[in-house]
Specification:
There is one protein chain. The protein is α+β, with helices and mostly antiparallel strands. The protein has 2 domains: 39-216, Immunoglobulin-like (Sandwich), CATH 2.60.40; 222-298, Immunoglobulins (Immunoglobulin-like). The protein is 19% helix and 38% strand. The chain is built from 2 helices and 20 strands. The chain has helices spanning 8-58, 75-80; strands at 70-74, 89-90, 95-96, 102-108, 111-117, 135-139, 143-147, 157-160, 166-167, 172-178, 181-183, 192-202, 205-216, 222-225, 232-237, 247-251, 255-256, 262-265, 273-282, 288-298. A 6-stranded antiparallel sheet has the order 5-4-1-6-8-9. The protein has a 5-stranded mixed sheet with strand order 7-13-12-10-11, with no helix packed on it. A hairpin with a 7-residue loop joins strand 18 and strand 19 (273-282). It is flat, with a radius of gyration of 31 Å.
């Protein structure tokens, strides 16, 4: 007996069913691939941290000594020293990790914390690496925040040749830029961001690293209530006339912020007990100050 073939309607039904299956499976496959890439990426970052730890074992004299101090090395230095494969690749972009990717080494509680700064890579960074070129260690972090009007002392860098000999500071050039313009010094009296570029040449090869210096307002406003600028306690008589004390606020940059004060109170003058009034204000830089007043409502 001759086998019966599919009808046109049946074939259309099969194609529709296959289309539905593809639509269902495609996001699953895509998510699986993305998760695989992220897992591989995390493994690569761990590998870079391990390389930095191996580097530290051979450069103990360069490690920070004081609590919370740090140094910053580059992935290029790890490649140059043979601590990691020079062709280590970002599995997400399918490109080599750039040499100027920074690794922060911070001393914390008698240990060292290694942080790969993979989300803050300087522009114009190259993946090429010259094993005969110099390397530079940033003393301190690759990004430093300075409070407005505080002084800034550049931690500097340490540069070495490919043979490991230290290069004198006078052979290291330093350029300071603000808004793309070269300036002579960092002015901490105004909010701004500066970029310091340190550059050294050895054996005909030039290496450079950069540091951001961010001058920002980190000082919170001052709230004053009844001549107090910090938490205090007051007593009031139950059922008496009570008005929430007036507050004023001033800021080192924004000036008078009295109109920006937010007041929260749970005082019930008709019931004896302990209550709170909280005054809070935030300046334009996001610095917040709060002041609490404890109100004891007492029997007459």
């Amino acid at each position: 007996m001759k086998a019966k073939g599919f009808t046109l309607i049946e074939l259309m039904g099969i194609f529709v069913l296959l289309g539905i299956i593809v639509l269902i499976l495609t996001p699953v496959i895509t998510d699986s691939l993305e998760n695989s890439k992220e897992t591989t990426y995390d493994a690569q970052i761990k590998q870079i941290k391990k390389a930095a730890q191996d580097w530290s074992a051979n450069h103990a004299s360069d490690l920070p000594v004081d609590e919370n101090d740090s140094i910053t090395i580059t992935l290029g230095a790890l490649k140059q020293g043979g601590y990691i494969d020079k062709d280590i690749q970002n599995p997400i972009t399918q490109e080599l990790f750039p040499n100027c990717m920074y690794i922060d080494i911070k001393r914390y509680k008698n240990n060292y914390v290694y942080t790969v700064l993979d989300d803050d890579i300087p522009s114009g960074c190259s993946s090429e690496n010259d094993i005969y070129g110099p390397s530079i260690i940033l003393k301190g972090g690759s990004s430093i925040e300075i409070n407005l009007n505080d002084s800034f002392l550049d931690p500097g860098v340490k540069a070495t040749s490919s043979s490991g000999s230290v290069i004198d500071d006078e052979n290291i050039t330093k350029t300071i830029e603000k808004d793309g313009q070269i300036v002579q010094e960092i002015d901490t009296t105004n909010i701004a961001t500066y970029t310091i570029t340190y550059q050294v040449t050895s054996n005909g090869t030039t290496a450079s690293v950069t540091r951001k210096v961010i001058i920002k307002d980190k000082t919170a406003p001052v709230i004053t209530v009844n001549n107090h600028t910090s938490r205090f306690t007051m007593e009031v008589i139950k059922d008496s006339d009570f008005t929430i004390p007036t507050a004023t606020a001033s800021d080192n940059v924004d000036g008078n912020l009295t109109n920006e004060i937010i007041v929260q109170s749970n005082v019930n003058i008709n019931v004896a007990g302990t209550y709170e009034i909280e005054y809070s204000v935030t300046d334009k830089s996001g610095n917040k100050r709060s002041l609490k007043v404890i109100v004891n409502v007492i029997e007459n």
